[in-house]
Amino acid sequence: FLICVAIRANYPLYIRSVPTQGELKFHYTVHTSLDVVEEKISGVGKALADQRELYLGLLYPTEDYKVYGYVTNSKVKFVIVVDSSNTSLRDNEIRSMFRKLHNSFTDVMCNPFYNPGDPIQSKAFDSIVSTMMVQAC
Amino acid sequence: MSVPDYMQCAEDHQTVVVVVQPMGIVPEDQFFRIYKRIASVSQVSIRDSQRVLFIRFRHHYPPENNEWGDFQTHRKVVGLISVTSCTTAKEWPQTSDRFHGQKEVFGSTLYDSRLLVFGLQGEVAEQQRTDVAFYPSYDDCPDVEKRVEDFVESIFIVLESKRLDRATDKSGDKIQMLCVPFEKKDFVGLDTDSRHYKKRCQGRMRKHVGDLCLQAGMLQDALVHYHMAVELLRSVNDFLWLGAALEGLCSASVIFHYPGGTAGKSGARKPSVSSAADAGKRHRPGALTSSGISADTSAEIGRAKNCLSQEDIIEKYKEAISYYGKYKSAGVIELEACIKAVRVLAIQKRAMEASEFLQNAVYINLGQLSEEEKIQRYSVLSELYELIGFQRKSAFFKRVAAMQCVAPTIPEPGWKACYKLLLETLPGYSLSLDPKDFSKGTHRGWAAVQLRLLHELVYASRRMGNPGLSVRHLSFLLQTMLDFLSDQEKKEVTQSLENYTSKCPGGMEVISLPDGLKLSPVPFTKLPIVRSVSLLNLPVSLRPHKVKGLLGQGLSSASPFIYSPITMHSRGDERSKKIDFQWVQGDVCEVQLMVYNPMPFELRVENMGLLTSGVDFESLPAALSLPAESGLYPVTLVGVPRTAGNITINGYHTSVFGVSSDCLLEGLVGVKSSGCMVEVVPSLPRLQLCTSLPRSAHLSSEDLSTSVSLQLFNGETQQLTITLENIGTETLNTLELTSKTLSTKDGISVTGLPVSSPLRQVLKPRTENKPVGSDASKNEFNHVKTLEAVLTFKYSGGAGQVEGYYRELSLGVRVDVEPSVFFTRVSTLPATSTRQCHLLLDVFNSTEHELTLSAKNNQDLVLHASECQRMAIQVDKLDFDSMPVTDHDALRQATVRQQEEKRQQVQGGLINSTLDIHWTISSIQRHGEASVEGVLNQLILEHLQLAPLQWDVVVNGKPCDCDVIADCRVGDAVPLEVKLTNRSKSAVGPFSLTIVPFQDYQNGVQNYDLQDAVTFIGSNTFYIGTVNPTENSVCVGALLFLYTGDFYLNIKFQDDSTARDLPPAWFCLPSVHIKAQEPVEL
């Protein structure tokens, strides 16, 4: 399982999961994980931690999934959910996945025809996510 | 122990449990009233000491939990208060027995008990017993609180003595092994003499004493004991009890650090004199403490060393929980510890760590839980998540709890509770039930999750038996989540909505829920979606016009300047802009909406009407059916303003799927509007126009209300009857009629003749043909020419007239003129008479029909199609000077050129009427007149004009002209009179005339030698003096014919110089023909 989400202002711009069945469950998972993300962001602010570290790490482990988070400086959040049993994905791999996502997201934002706040419908972004999902699964 | 107390918090370790129970039949409400009064005594300051005893009252306490009382003394039931009704003394013994029975339940742990008896009076009630209190009724028990306090104090004494007893138990005697229920079997056969065992006993006892100290208000002592217990138990790996000791340590530290409590508002403690923080300072050796372990020592060791730091509390909690986790049977203890730790962390605002504890708590398996326990568990988890600020997690668990309320395994699902819980989850999913929050642009949020929640709300409210509520929720779902619904879902949602509304139609009222939540109405602004709203002007014929020149006209603008380059920016509020046309009271007014249907199926909108303000407006609702996924679709909503004033279109109302909604424009996004306010002027009459000719569909100009078009031949006359009918409610007071012609490029015009009656008008098209010199331009006449004219009726009446408004009705008349006959050439020939001449007309029939041409006093001329023939008409010369004088005013104003044109026109008219040339096409029953006006030139006009000098010759009393033969008798004197009438503008004369008789033999020979035949009586020469204008002069002579015969008289002018200045045509005297006959024989 792998789910990818880009979130801005706490609503999803992009959400995709493999496989697609039981998507609602992932919606719940990601939605609730935002609590942790917010807590982490506010915590970072207090501690004046390294601002360049955007990777939030494992948000919380559940029985079946691991939820990872990543926040850009403009507070766009990325969340990746992977199957707990998937041991091939280490922290470094997740980190690089987030970086790829972030780059692609930046490209989407550069599109003059993209209206900030609209759901992402970019094919390029989609294909990046697809390749990541293929690699991960 | 299977029943966790989810409300527990760290400071509960300080409390003692007192169970308050009803005994026998006690009315529930009465019991809880008493219970409340009892529970109000939750902390009691003990006399003679600074200590406070905290009590937890429970009306229900599972005995299994009591069994864990040794493990953690705050779980032990130490007091029992029974509440019972007893009306007669007879029942008393039985009641007393029962009370003893009840005591047995908690028997082993009870320190003391009380019985409150209500309703018993008399002898039995008189007896003084410490453990029983008698009250005459539930309302009459003033000293309940006092009794409870006494009871608490007695508990305290027991507690204190137990504490002292255990604390001094250090002597080498055998220490009792405290254990939890599931351990009991483990100790069977264990060597009780081993060091290990003894240490274990010691450690457990230490921990137990710590508990007691904590309960007895000796915080510092408790800390010391816990520390010792931790060390002892750690050395023997007694993990369960080690966990308990650590937790005790944590609890004591928490009580020290957070005197306000950790349970939040609901558990807030009354500020007490000996609140834990300063307990050490204030601690004075009291009567009871002095004999025990020195309180002073505990105070010294005190805070600094024994009390855990805030960081350490969490560490120790973690440790304790990890130890508890080793024992499956201690799940409840572990869970409760987690909850307690979370509460502490919440106060410390360490949400992340708190969430870890909670996460752990989620996974603690307590075995088979009842449904109710599950609900409670999820609710508490939700509350705790909320406590640490995790709104979403909180909402998630609340939703799970809600679902649990109606789990299929529950025989009586609690839909109300479910609904209530679901409502509470709304903020967590950033969902508000006010549709206004969704009107700003596209919806943004976790649609899938929100959608699910709304569906659940709908279902729950339906099962609750509140269809109105489910309709409201479903409407809300449809309105706000429309973009996220698939086509299939749209269908399903609308179907169920229709099902619901068939029982309970949805409306616009606010639904108030019992808990105070108000559900605002959900207008379906997306069913259909309105893209633009435009108020339509009235049809041209009904538009009101303001009479110009009236006061106030044009001065309505607020600015004092006539013109200012600074334009007022009315940015933003486009809708309040006033529209520059008016509506009329009592007339149907229209507003056009461009709508589209976002649904994948046909959308039936019923009862669609306008919402207005400012004026009484009678909306005439419409029903429409929009095809699936329609494009923009115009919908016209109509209504009748009943009063005058400014009307504002605020919105529209619809009824879709049985839900009626009022959609206000101000709340709509993306609606184009050019303004929604319009003035309604007072009512005006309303005319309907009918014409005798069929209306033409073609309107040459949009200003026209009606138009007729006809096809005529040039010269044809068509009568048009116009009937005006006032179909309005107001009386028509004034009617004004004007006509206007629209010139076309050919220079052809239509002249409206003066109106013969107010309601009749005759139109006569007339072509002004150019003189045609050659046949080459014949083609030109084959063109069909179009003539247009507009008749305008201005009318007014009623209240609108008072305000200065009128209406205009215009009728366009369009005539396609086909050529009929043309005069290709005109010439004149002099006739025999000086007063007449011959007009020669070359007539060309340009029609495709055989045509008969007739002129006055002339034979008909038949012309075949495209045939040209010459026609000669003898006409009397015309006297243009005697033409009717046109209006002097008009003459004065007109230029010379215009005067000339006018004159020519009048002349032409006169010639036309004189000639009176008509054509008839018998084959198609058409007839008309032909005009020569255009072909007449100056030369011909001159020929046709009577000379200004009029000569009249009278022979024998008979005026003579060319063709007139005067008769006379031979031998009789024939008087001859020549009369000159001067019609020219100047004086003429003098002239001299000579009369020469001659005979014409009709063979070219003229015999002037007639001296023998004719004699003059008198001179044959006449003299006429100067004749002034409009005067005349007569000269008279006589002739005597001697023979019979035909004679002619030639009147010649003497060659006079004065006459030469005048044109010879002026001196055109008729020749006189006289027939002399034999005298009549008498």
UniProtKB/TrEMBL annotation, chain A:
<dbReference type="GO" id="GO:0048471">
    <property type="term" value="C:perinuclear region of cytoplasm"/>
</dbReference>
<dbReference type="InterPro" id="IPR006722">
    <property type="entry name" value="Sedlin"/>
</dbReference>
<keyword id="KW-0813">Transport</keyword>
<keyword id="KW-0931">ER-Golgi transport</keyword>
<dbReference type="InterPro" id="IPR011012">
    <property type="entry name" value="Longin-like_dom_sf"/>
</dbReference>
<protein>
    <recommendedName>
        <fullName>Trafficking protein particle complex subunit 2-like protein</fullName>
    </recommendedName>
</protein>
<dbReference type="GO" id="GO:0006888">
    <property type="term" value="P:endoplasmic reticulum to Golgi vesicle-mediated transport"/>
</dbReference>
<comment type="similarity">
    <text>Belongs to the TRAPP small subunits family. Sedlin subfamily.</text>
</comment>
<dbReference type="InterPro" id="IPR044760">
    <property type="entry name" value="TRAPPC2L"/>
</dbReference>
<dbReference type="Pfam" id="PF04628">
    <property type="entry name" value="Sedlin_N"/>
</dbReference>
UniProtKB/TrEMBL annotation, chain B:
<dbReference type="GO" id="GO:0005802">
    <property type="term" value="C:trans-Golgi network"/>
</dbReference>
<dbReference type="InterPro" id="IPR058565">
    <property type="entry name" value="Ig_TRAPPC9_Trs120_1st"/>
</dbReference>
<dbReference type="Pfam" id="PF26254">
    <property type="entry name" value="Ig_TRAPPC9-Trs120_1st"/>
</dbReference>
<feature type="domain" description="Trs120/TRAPPC9 first Ig-like">
    <location>
        <begin position="530"/>
        <end position="658"/>
    </location>
</feature>
<dbReference type="InterPro" id="IPR058564">
    <property type="entry name" value="TPR_TRAPPC9_Trs120"/>
</dbReference>
<feature type="domain" description="Trs120/TRAPPC9 fourth Ig-like">
    <location>
        <begin position="967"/>
        <end position="1076"/>
    </location>
</feature>
<dbReference type="InterPro" id="IPR058567">
    <property type="entry name" value="Ig_TRAPPC9_Trs120_3rd"/>
</dbReference>
<dbReference type="Pfam" id="PF08626">
    <property type="entry name" value="TRAPPC9-Trs120"/>
</dbReference>
<feature type="domain" description="Trs120/TRAPPC9 TPR region">
    <location>
        <begin position="352"/>
        <end position="499"/>
    </location>
</feature>
<dbReference type="InterPro" id="IPR058568">
    <property type="entry name" value="Ig_TRAPPC9_Trs120_4th"/>
</dbReference>
<dbReference type="Pfam" id="PF26251">
    <property type="entry name" value="TPR_TRAPPC9-Trs120"/>
</dbReference>
<keyword id="KW-0333">Golgi apparatus</keyword>
<dbReference type="Pfam" id="PF26283">
    <property type="entry name" value="Ig_TRAPPC9-Trs120_4th"/>
</dbReference>
<feature type="domain" description="Trs120/TRAPPC9 N-terminal">
    <location>
        <begin position="176"/>
        <end position="259"/>
    </location>
</feature>
<dbReference type="Pfam" id="PF26282">
    <property type="entry name" value="Ig_TRAPPC9-Trs120_3rd"/>
</dbReference>
<dbReference type="InterPro" id="IPR013935">
    <property type="entry name" value="Trs120_TRAPPC9"/>
</dbReference>
<comment type="similarity">
    <text>Belongs to the NIBP family.</text>
</comment>
<feature type="domain" description="Trs120/TRAPPC9 third Ig-like">
    <location>
        <begin position="830"/>
        <end position="944"/>
    </location>
</feature>
<protein>
    <submittedName>
        <fullName>Trafficking protein particle complex subunit 9</fullName>
    </submittedName>
</protein>
<feature type="region of interest" description="Disordered">
    <location>
        <begin position="263"/>
        <end position="293"/>
    </location>
</feature>
<dbReference type="InterPro" id="IPR058563">
    <property type="entry name" value="Trs120_TRAPPC9_N"/>
</dbReference>
